[in-house]
Structures are given as C-alpha cells and as structure tokens.
Design brief:
Blueprint lengths: L2 E2 L1 H4 L10 E3 L4 E3 L4 E3 L4 E2 L22 E2 L5 E6 L15 H12 L5 E5 L5 H14 L2 E5 L2 H10 L10 E7 L1 E4 L5 E4 L9 E3 L11 E10 L6 E2 L2 E2 H9 L2 E6 L5 E2 L8 E4 L2 E4 L2 H8 L17 E2 L4 E5 L8
Parallel strand pairs: 7-8, 7-10, 8-9, 10-14, 14-17
Antiparallel strand pairs: 1-6, 2-3, 3-4, 4-5, 11-12, 12-13, 15-16, 17-22, 18-21, 19-20
Length: 316
C-alpha cells in the first residue's frame, strides 16, 4: 500500500515502517521484508507486484508516501462517462482521474475498469494507455465480477495480498427501494450498479488492517432509506472511508483537465480550445485520448468530502 503522509498530518494515526537491524546478516527487517542499507534497496519483492519496480518503497518517495504492508492498492474506474453518440462528448473522465491517482501513487496500483459503454476503438485506446504506463489493467463485466476480484484477488489469493487502499471513480445512483450506491456505467442495467445491499457480499478479510477507501461518486456519503453507503463500507472493511456528502453531495469532474472546458448537460464545450489542445498534447498525448488528469475531482456546491470511520462495537 502506498498512501500519502499528508493524511497522517491531518490528525489521523501516524503509520511508520520500523526497521530492526539484524547484526548477523547486516540487513534491516522492515516488517514486510528485508532492507539492505549498503545497497539502498529491499532484497525482497513487494508482494503485490504492482508497478514497474517491485523492490522500491513508497513509490521511491518516502517523504510523501508510506507503505506499511506493501500489498495491493486498487483503483476502480467506471465505464464511459456518457453513452457517447458523437465526437462532441468526452467520455474518459473516470479513466483520466484513475490515471492521475495511480500516477500520484507512483504506479503502484491495480486498475479495474468497467467494460461499459466503450466502443472497440475506445477499449483499445485504454489498453494502450495503460500499457504505455506499465499499469496492471483488469476489466470487469459486472459488479459480481468486481466483487469476486475484491474477495479472491489474483492468482496468489487474498490471504497473501490483502487490499490496503481502494479508490473509486464512478457515478452515484439510487433505485426505487431506497438503495444507494455506485454506478459503473452510464444509463446501464443493474449489472453495473453496486448498491448498499451488495456490500454484504464483500469479505471483510479481503482488506488489510488500516485500509483506506475513497469514493469519488455523488452522494455516497449521504443517508438514504437503506443506510449510508460509505458508513456501511467502512463498517464492512474496518477502515476509514471518504465519500461526498451534503445537501447536494455531488462530485464535480469539471476541472480535472484544467480550466479549459466546462460541462453543459451531457455535452462538453471547450474553452480556449487551441490552448487546451496544446496543453493536452504537450506530452505527446492527443486531446481526444485518455491521460492522467491535472487534478482529482472536487466536491460540488453544498458538498464535502467526509470521513467515515468503522463503527466501534463496545463489548457487552
């Protein structure tokens, strides 16, 4: 897990990696592996095997990041932001945000993308964008397959690779039964809708102690008839969960690519088009293709990113 030290300075429990010197071997045992001071590197691989280098610590930036377990970070992207029917609609908002998150983590994450709303060309573009960045990309075709990966993990199984951070970029949604949750597709059926009732299918044991989850989805921190999605997630995973709440409670993806464009309903109207395109192509990235966003989504009007801690049950 790679997480920012800024979270700890905000008043939460400080997590540090303790190094115990082994005189016989001249190595230091750092809880999840051995470190060689003379070589300036770990002698054992990160067990999650995420990112291009499995021997680094904290994305090679221990001032900004900590990695108490060295296990799997998961970033989940919804499908196409809109069901695109013309070239006037930009559909990579969730992908761009996910790539930004993984970039900030030094590439140390598994990216799960909903196979919803993409045409063949867009699908291949996303595959290439991840390959170019060395990102471990997995597609899921339903919330059931996403749940299965969370519970069971990759080939090594969850027992040896618990989830240490979990981040979601997707729509928020509700149904006529008072359920609220996450929609991984736009105007799609329930195969891509993850409600409060689905949280019970998640295995608590899939998550490491101290896991941190963040949902960049509208109103996932608000109370509904069948409960609060973020609070129920925190209780299930046993870790802190961040989600948008408030009178509006909406997430805002408007400025993730900078202030060159604004949204009007389902259409994107570009401001200072040529300057925006030039900025988007400055790193060889064409504007119509996905790339790491300039910033993560923000809270909309009358909304705030809110912390939900797991419920503490007092002994009888």
């Amino acid at each position: 897990m790679v997480k920012t030290n800024s979270e700890n300075r905000a008043g939460f429990i400080l997590i540090v990696t303790v190094y115990t010197k082994k005189i016989q071997t001249f190595f230091c045992f750092a809880y999840m592996g051995y470190y060689s001071p003379s070589r300036g590197r770990f002698n054992t691989q990160d067990p999650s095997m995420n990112g291009p280098n499995w021997y680094v610590y904290g994305a090679n930036n221990p001032i900004m990041f900590i990695d108490p377990f060295g296990l799997e970070n998961i970033v989940v992207s919804g499908g196409a932001y809109y069901q695109a029917d013309s070239n006037d609609e930009y559909v990579y908002e969730f992908i761009d945000s996910a790539l930004k998150q993984i970039k900030d983590m030094g590439g140390d994450a598994t990216l799960l993308v909903a196979n919803a709303g993409w045409n063949e060309e867009q699908y291949n573009i996303i595959v290439q964008a991840c390959a170019d960045r060395g990102i471990n990309l997995l597609w899921f075709s339903s919330v059931d397959s996403l749940t299965t990966y969370i519970n069971e993990g990759g080939n090594g199984g969850r027992e040896n690779d618990p989830i240490t951070s979990f981040t979601v970029f997707a729509h928020g949604t509700d149904d006529d039964k008072g359920n609220y949750g996450v929609a991984f597709g736009y105007d799609t059926d329930n195969d891509f809708r993850w409600y409060t009732s689905d949280i019970q299918k998640i295995n608590s044991s899939a998550f490491a102690s101290g896991v941190v989850s963040t949902f960049y989805s509208c109103r996932t921190g608000n109370n509904f008839n069948n409960g609060n999605f973020a609070q129920m997630w925190a209780d299930k995973t046993g870790g802190n969960t961040y989600a948008y709440s408030g009178t509006n409670g909406r997430s805002d993806y408007t400025d993730i690519l900078g202030n060159w464009w604004e949204r009007h309903g389902p259409k994107i109207v570009y401001k200072a088009y040529n300057a925006w395109k030039a900025a988007r192509t400055s790193n060889g990235q064409m504007y119509e293709k996905p790339g790491a966003a300039w910033s993560l989504p923000q809270a909309g009007p009358n909304a705030a990113m809110t912390l939900f801690g797991p419920e503490v049950i007092s002994p009888a």
